[in-house]
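Q: I have 269 residues here and want to know how they pack in 3D. Can you give me a structure?
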Amino acid sequence: MQDSPPGEHSQLKYLCAAGAMLFAALLFYSQTRAFSWDEGFHLLAAQLILAGKRPYLDFCFPQTPLNAYLTAGWMRLFGDTWRAVHVLSAVWVAAAAFLTADFVRSRFPVPDWRWAGSLAALVAVGMNTQVVLFGTIGQSYALCLFLIVAAYRLAVIAVERPGVSRAGAAGFMAGAAAASSMLTAPVGPALVIWLYLCNRAGNCWAKIAAFLGSFAIAWLPIAWLYRQGPTQTIFNVFLYQLKYRHKWNGAMRQDIGALTSWINSAQGI
């Protein structure tokens, strides 16, 4: 914020140090304890992409594929191992927690409490049990967490300023999250409603158009796959989850458990 007292700028250094400590803890956990049976499916998809295969067309992958492509690129640079992928996940989680904490540091209405509030936010996000357990593995949760936090921060700034670039960036981030996991698809409509209801500068409809256009750009890889195999792409992205997944006897029980798990979580509440 432009009206921040000079002393507050030093708080950013302390927040960076706290963020580095959080990253170190997440990195240690990711290399020693982090594991989920499901991540093998995602790591295999990335390995197949690395070998030149295409999701949907050459192998079944009932997820949106952006995270798998990113993981494959990371493997090409740093090695085809789960350890390298876990490092990337720890980076995304630490970055998401830092963006959340920095938002509190810059926006909290009581200046004397901004440092304490930002530190509390860093811990609340980065050390949440679900974030630690599932954000440090080879699935898309860590990337999606980072993308939706970034999209939110950009959307908050977009309503305050006249240009459309920040709204477009927010749309791209939200679209990339949905292109990594459809579980994050509601973020896009939520932020569009925010732009419509809370816009205070510039043309609201231009911002919404920029948001939606950038959201679509993030889905171009899926459009490319759809052009080559419409039936396979529709099946993997939509039909499997909507129609066929529940042929597994435990699917409904798992869904209900996931939707109600917050009741048993003090952190969730």
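Q: Anything worth noting?
A: The chain has a mean pLDDT of 92. The two ends are 30 Å apart (CA to CA).
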